[in-house]
């Protein structure tokens, strides 16, 4: 199961969580393994049956106000009992000053206490988005990802087969580069996988004989994009005259990427084949499939009907004769 350290919440800049550490620095190494957020609610009264471990606990105005109605001794008893559970961390929202008993109990339990000026609803929405991004399954692939007619096409193949040269030709035709050489892939939600360029080499491409070029500088910001959903994988293979390649395309093939099955096409490469045009056509064909039009299957169905009708007519003629 994927998990992140509590300290990564403090390090975030993209989701504007605006967290500051109040107490419990020892708890920064605790792990969060769920994007679900919990408000303790009735757990503050001692009913902890539905308290989930390793989740972020949010104390809003209601929770803090309730604690302040209790005596200091009772606050300590409630919080000590609550923090016996293996919680991830505690966040106080709305910029509220945490009660002293809460800070002391977190420090005693080695549980990180943080504060944010955001309202509870806004913080929960933003921290869930952060955790969903951080906890999703991810990996890296050696290939090229390019946006062709709005379709995220991942080009795979052994080194030197021409992936980067094909991508460069596609960029010159107006398509957009996402990543070259190293593609970082992440499953964002069920059945959807996104690819992005590695931060070190983003927008750069290696062309043998030229070296490293910067696509964004050469062709402008419209020639690149930061992230794209992968909708089609094209595996480039050297042409083998002894291998049988799919000539109809009736049966769909898939490649599993971080748990998501993505449509796969295996395309042989040999001199004289216009690979750029083939990939553009493959992207257009994928768009048709997504809209419910499977050209190969429709052709096969028409062919089967024509054969069946021909057999029927032949049988009738034989009966007449």
TrEMBL record:
Top-level taxonomy: Bacteria, Pseudomonadati, Myxococcota, Myxococcia, Myxococcales
Protein family per UniProt: Belongs to the HPrK/P family.
Keyword Ligase: no
Subunit-level organization: Homohexamer.
Stretches the record annotates as Important for the catalytic mechanism of both phosphorylation and dephosphorylation: 205-214
Gene designation: hprK
GO biological process terms, semicolon-separated: regulation of carbohydrate metabolic process
Cofactors, names only: Mg(2+)
Domain HPr kinase/phosphorylase C-terminal stretches: 134-302
Residues noted as binding Mg(2+) in the record, renumbered to the chain: 164, 206
Catalytic residue list: 142, 163, 181 (proton acceptor), 247
Classification via PANTHER family: HPR KINASE_PHOSPHORYLASE, PROTEIN YJDM-RELATED
Key word rRNA processing present: no
Note: Both phosphorylation and phosphorolysis are carried out by the same active site and suggest a common mechanism for both reactions.
Notes on the domains: The Walker A ATP-binding motif also binds Pi and PPi.
CDD domains listed in its UniProt record: HprK_C
InterPro entries: HPr(Ser)_kin/Pase, Hpr_kin/Pase_C, Hpr_kin/Pase_Hpr_N, P-loop_NTPase, Ser_kin/Pase_Hpr-like_N_sf
Reactions accelerated catalytically: [HPr protein]-O-phospho-L-serine + phosphate + H(+) = [HPr protein]-L-serine + diphosphate; [HPr protein]-L-serine + ATP = [HPr protein]-O-phospho-L-serine + ADP + H(+)
Binding of ATP, residues: 157-164
The protein, known as: HPr kinase/phosphorylase
GO molecular function: ATP binding; magnesium ion binding; phosphorelay sensor kinase activity; protein serine/threonine kinase activity; protein serine/threonine/tyrosine kinase activity
Record keywords, A-Z: ATP-binding, Kinase, Magnesium, Metal-binding, Multifunctional enzyme, Nucleotide-binding, Serine/threonine-protein kinase, Transferase
Residue span of region Important for the catalytic mechanism of dephosphorylation: 268-273
Stated role: Catalyzes the ATP- as well as the pyrophosphate-dependent phosphorylation of a specific serine residue in HPr, a phosphocarrier protein of the phosphoenolpyruvate-dependent sugar phosphotransferase system (PTS). HprK/P also catalyzes the pyrophosphate-producing, inorganic phosphate-dependent dephosphorylation (phosphorolysis) of seryl-phosphorylated HPr (P-Ser-HPr).
């Amino acid at each position: 199961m994927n998990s992140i350290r509590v300290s990564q919440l403090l390090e975030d800049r993209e989701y504007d969580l605006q967290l500051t550490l109040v107490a419990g620095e020892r708890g920064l190494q605790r792990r969060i393994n769920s994007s679900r957020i919990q408000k303790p609610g009735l757990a503050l009264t001692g009913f902890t049956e539905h308290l989930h471990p390793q989740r972020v606990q949010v104390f809003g105005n209601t929770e803090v106000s309730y604690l302040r109605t209790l005596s200091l001794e009772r606050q300590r008893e409630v919080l000590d009992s609550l923090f016996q559970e293996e919680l991830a961390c505690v966040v106080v929202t709305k910029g509220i000053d945490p009660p002293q008993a809460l800070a002391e109990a977190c420090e005693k339990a080695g549980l990180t206490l943080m504060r944010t000026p955001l309202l509870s609803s806004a913080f929960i929405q933003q921290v869930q988005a952060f955790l969903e991004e951080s906890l999703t399954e991810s990996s890296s692939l050696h290939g090229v990802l390019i946006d062709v007619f709005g379709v995220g096409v991942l080009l795979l193949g052994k080194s030197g087969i021409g992936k980067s040269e094909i991508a460069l030709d596609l960029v010159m035709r107006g398509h957009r580069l996402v990543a070259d050489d190293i593609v970082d892939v992440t499953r964002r939600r069920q059945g959807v996988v996104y690819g992005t360029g590695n931060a070190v080499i983003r927008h750069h491409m290696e062309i043998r004989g030229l070296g490293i070029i910067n696509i964004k500088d050469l062709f402008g910001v419209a020639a690149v994009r930061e992230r794209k959903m992968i909708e089609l994988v094209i595996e480039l293979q050297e042409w083998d005259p002894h291998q049988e390649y799919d000539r109809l395309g009736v049966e769909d093939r898939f490649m599993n990427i971080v748990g998501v099955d993505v449509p796969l096409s295996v395309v042989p490469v040999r001199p004289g084949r216009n690979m750029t045009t083939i990939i553009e056509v493959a992207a257009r064909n994928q768009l048709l499939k997504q809209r419910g039009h499977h050209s190969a299957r429709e052709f096969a169905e028409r062919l089967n009907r024509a054969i069946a009708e021909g057999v029927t007519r032949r049988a009738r003629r034989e009966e007449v004769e």
